[in-house]
Specification:
The structure is a single chain. The chain is mostly helical and about 210 residues long. Helices cover about 75% and strands about 5% of the residues. It has eleven helices and two strands. β1 and β2 form a beta hairpin. α1 crosses α2, α4 packs across α6 and α6 packs across α9.
C-alpha cells in the first residue's frame, strides 16, 4: 500500500470511528456531517471524498462492522475456508451464533448499533474473506448447505428466521440481562435454531407425501 493509500485509509477509518461514537451517543438524525468531520479531525470537504452523505456512511459502517463479526465467526468454524468438518449443519450454525454472541456481549455498543440499523438487504451484501478471495456471507452459507448433503425448502427464509430470532431475543438479554442472562437463554435459543432447521429440511418421507 502506498503512503497516499495508507493516508486515505486512516482518514476513512477515522470517519468510521467518529461516526460510530456519535451515532451511538447522539443518534443518526441528531448527528451532522460537521459533527462527524470535527470528531474525526478532518475537513468537512474530506467527508465527501469517501461518502455521499451520513446515511451512506451509516450503511457502509454497518456492513464493515457486521462483516468483521461474520469474518471472525467464519474463521472459528472454517466457513471462510469451506472446511466444514464432520459437524451437522445445526451445530456449525450454532457455533457461529455462539462466537457472534460472545462478541456482542463484550461490545454492547456494537450490538445496539447493528441491531437498530441492520437491514436484510445489507446483510445479503456482507462479505467474508478467504485469503485474497471475497464472497458474500450468503454465498458461503449456501455452500455450507450444499456441503451438508441435505435439502431445505427455503434456505433464505431459514437464515432470515435465525438472524431475526437471535437479534430479537438477545438484544434485551445482553444489554439488560432481562428476562434472563445470556447463559440461561442459550440452551432454549439453540434448541429453537435446531427446530427451525429441522422444520425446513426436506426429508424423503416429506417428498413421498408431496408426491
Amino acid at each position: 500500500m502506498s503512503k497516499l493509500d495508507e493516508k486515505k485509509k486512516k482518514k476513512r477509518e477515522a470517519l468510521f470511528t467518529a461516526a460510530f461514537r456519535l451515532f451511538n451517543t447522539k443518534g443518526i438524525v441528531q448527528t451532522s456531517i460537521s459533527d462527524i468531520a470535527h470528531e474525526a479531525d478532518v475537513a468537512k470537504g474530506t467527508f465527501y471524498l469517501y461518502f455521499k452523505d451520513k446515511f451512506d456512511l451509516r450503511d457502509k459502517l454497518i456492513a464493515a462492522k457486521a462483516s468483521q463479526i461474520l469474518l471472525k465467526a467464519a474463521e472459528e468454524v472454517g466457513l471462510n475456508r469451506h472446511t466444514y468438518g464432520d459437524k451437522p449443519l445445526e451445530e456449525t450454525v450454532i457455533d457461529m451464533v455462539d462466537v457472534i454472541l460472545a462478541r456482542m456481549e463484550r461490545e454492547p455498543e456494537l450490538l445496539k448499533f447493528i441491531t437498530r440499523n441492520l437491514s436484510w438487504g445489507a446483510f445479503h451484501q456482507m462479505s467474508i474473506e478467504d485469503g485474497g478471495d471475497k464472497s458474500t456471507f450468503i454465498e458461503s452459507y449456501n455452500a455450507l448447505i450444499a456441503a451438508s448433503g441435505r435439502k431445505f425448502d427455503n434456505p433464505d427464509l431459514m437464515l432470515f428466521m435465525i438472524v431475526e430470532l437471535v437479534g430479537g431475543c438477545c438484544y434485551q438479554v445482553i444489554l439488560n440481562q432481562m428476562p434472563v442472562s445470556l447463559d440461561v437463554l442459550k440452551p432454549s435459543l439453540y434448541r429453537v435454531i435446531r427446530d427451525i432447521i429441522s422444520e425446513h429440511e426436506i426429508t424423503d418421507a416429506g417428498s413421498d407425501i408431496e408426491g
